[in-house]
Amino acid sequence: MAEEEKGKEKNPKNNQNAKKRKRKDVFIYGNYKSYYGYRIGHDKSEDPRLSVLNKEWFEDKDCLDIGCNQGLITIAIAKKFSCRSILGVDIDAGLVENANWNLRRIVRMEHAGGKSVNASTPDLLERVNGLHQSTSASSSEVAVDLPKEPSPLKEHTLLERVSFQTENIIKSMNACWEKYDTILCLSVTKWIHLNWGDDGLITLFVKIWRLLRPGGILILEPQPWKSYKNNRLVSETTKYNFNRILFKPEMFQELLLDKIGFRTVETITNHTPGSVVGFDRPIFVFHK
After folding, report:
1. When you count CB atoms within 10 A of the terminal residue's CB, does the N or C end of the chain come out lower?
2. pTM score
């Protein structure tokens, strides 16, 4: 037995595999690097959530996307619904860097080839993940031939209308008041809840309220409690907070209406056609 153990220690392959297991990434904020790849699926041309959103919520409006990840749905909303402006914020600086890269790449490709690039296509994201390894990839590798969405705004203004920045929404943006017409919070509440508890969730909702102009809307896609259970052990903090959460997702509507001050809520959908298994979540619109 001693000889066998000694042989294992000397085997570099075993040591490398052990190191790989130790280096496995843990995304404690839900900041997955390939989120869109498994959220959208490789057989879809766009994020299914776009099909249930109304243009009137975004057209010529100032918008905020909280937890934008690599920015694909942020860019897609700007293109499809003609926002006046849309800011995507994320706690992960690396994801924000990739979001800015995505934006520049899409604009360059459309200007160079006259092709409309579907900003929410997962294959585009995979190119972003390999950005530092393959910066010489040709634009044709990620271009998607699709009809252009009609828009009163010229395509060359996309860089002016879309922006991204690194923000921890719980600890920043305190001084902003009534700045946005529409705020998106899509599959983000669970991660704020697990990392900052009930106090963090309430802080999020209060800040959204303050950031919205009168008559503004919050588009909310909360994760179900089952999803919390699946991710409660990603860190000691999430494990601690999970066991102390009082405001479960089914209570969010009451909290936002009765405590935060939103006037009304409507369910956009209980079922998003084409969603990948595990991501078919209800989406709500709250009116200030």
Report:
1. N
2. 0.76
